[in-house]
Amino acid sequence: MLGLMQDYPLLTHTLIDHGALNHGEREMVTRSVEGPIRRCTLADVRSRSLRVAKALERDGVTLGDRIATMAWNTERHVETWFGIMGLGAICHTLNPRLFGEQLDYIVNHAEDEIVFVDLTFVPILEALKDRLGSVRKYIVLTDADHMPDTSLPNAVAYEEWLGGVDDDFAWKHFDENTAAALCYTSGTTGHPKGVLYSHRSNVLHGLMVNQPDIFGLRSEDTMLAIVPMFHANAWALTFSVPAAGARMVMPGPGLDGPSIYELLDSERVTATAAVPTVWLGLLQYLEQTGSKLPHLERVVIGGAACPPMMIRKFELEYGVEVIHGWGMTEMSPVGTTGKMKHATSTLDREAQLKLKEKQGRAPFLVELKVVDDEGRELPRDGKSSGHLLVRGPCISRGYFKLEGSALTGDGWFDTGDIANIDELGYMQITDRDKDVIKSGGEWISSIEVENVAVGCPGVAEAAVIGLPHPKWSERPLLIVLREPGSEVDAEAVLGYLDGKIAAWWMPNDVVFVDEIPHTATGKIQKMALRKQFKDFEFSN
Ligand code: AMP
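Above: inputs. Below: predicted complex with adenosine monophosphate.
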C-alpha cells in the first residue's frame, strides 16, 4: 500500500522559488568581475533565472542538453545554474584551472552546446575554440559596455542576450531523478570522470548541509560563498542558501586575503566556507594588519585536511568556530563535519580542539564504514584504519557515459581515502589509497608527472608523492632511481619536466634513492614512500 502524500518532486528550482517567495528581499552581493560591488535580491535572482531558462529555450535548448559555465562565484553564475536546471538541461561547471587538454576532453565528452564564460576566462576558451566542436554559442557574463573583442564564434554579452526576454516563463516539469548538473573530477589515471548530480540529490544535499550540526545556515546568516562554483558543486551553497533564506555574498575573482577580509568586514558576514589555502591568505592578512573578525561566527574548512594551527588561530585568537569538513565531488560533496556533540560537549577546550583535527562525523543521509583489504568491516575504535566506504542518496553510483557501476558488489562507494572511525563516530583520514596530490584544492596526477619524468635521460624509475606543505596543503616530491652509472641531478630532471607538465604541477623537490618499493603486482608502494619521507621538508 502506498502512502497518501502529495507527489512533489524535489527539483532545484523549487529552492530559488522558496527563497524568492519567502525571503525575496534578502540580498545577494557580488564583487563583480568588472570591479564594482553589485547588489540584488533573491527575488531578482529568481526573475533573472527564469529569463535565462526562457532565453535558452528560445536558443533551442531542451531537456538533457549540456550547457557549460566557466565562471567565478557571482550572482550571474547563480542565475545560470537555476535557469539551466529549471529548463531540464544539465549545468556543466568547467574548472578554469585545468589545463588545455583536459578542458578540451571534458567539453567534447560532455558535448556542451553553449558555454557561459566570465571575462577572465575568455582567453582560455579562445585558445581552445577550434577543438570545441560541440559548442555553438558563447555567452560572455558581462554587459555590452564590457564585451571584449573576442575571436570566440557566435559570442554575445549576457546582459544583451538576457535583454531579449522577460521572466514570463514556467519552470519545466520532470522527474526528480532527472540529471541537473555535471562536474568532472580528475582521476588517478586516464581522463577526468563526470559526476552527474540529479535534481533530487541536489535538493536533498542542500537541505542536509543546513542541518544545525553541519553548516547550520539560518535566515539571519550572511554566507560568504568562497568555495568556487566550479568545484564540487560549491559545497551545496547555491542550493542551501536560498533554502535557508540567508544573505549570500559572492567574492567573484577576489580570493586573496585583503579582498576576502574586506567582504567579511563590510558585509558583516556570519558564516563562510573555503579550502585551507584561502584561509592561510586571510590569516596572514589579519596578522599583518592586526584586524579582527567581529561578525564572523563560523568558518567551514574542507577539501583538504585543516592544519591544527588554523583551527587554533580561528577559535582562540579570533573567536570563530571552525567546522572542519570532508567530502568529495562524488558525494555532492559533503560527507562529514566535525561539530561537537552531546558526548564531547563536556571535554575541555584542548581536547575539543584536538577532536576538530579529525574530519568529523556523518550527517543523516551519509553512511560511512571502514573495511580491510578483504572488505571486512573494521571496528569503530579510532585506531583501525582501512578503506573508507560511503553510501547515501547524494552519492554517485556511476559516471557520465561510463559503462557499469562505480560501487562495490554490496553497493558502497570507495572514496579512495584511508581512515578510521572512533566510538563516537568521528572519522579521521590517515592516508590516501588513490594516487593523486591535492595542492591548493586542485588535483595533481602523480602518475602523469611520473610518466613524463621517466623519459628524462638517466632516470630509471620515478615516483611522485604528495607531502604536507604549509601554504598549499600538499605539494609533489619527485623520488628518482637513477639508471646505473647516471649522474642526472635535480636541476636536469626539473629542466626536463619544464614545459611538459602544467607549471603548478612541477615537483617542489627531487630526491634520489637506491630503491623504489613495489607491491606484489609491481605497483609503486606510495604509502610506504609517504611513510619513508614523512619528515621531509621542502626547500620551497
Ligand atoms: P574533491 O572530489 O576534489 O572534492 O576531492 C575529494 C578528496 O579530497 C577526498 O577524497 C580527500 O582525499 C580530500 N579531502 C577532502 N576534504 C578533506 C579533509 N578535510 N581532510 C583530508 N582530505 C580531504
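The mean pLDDT is 95.
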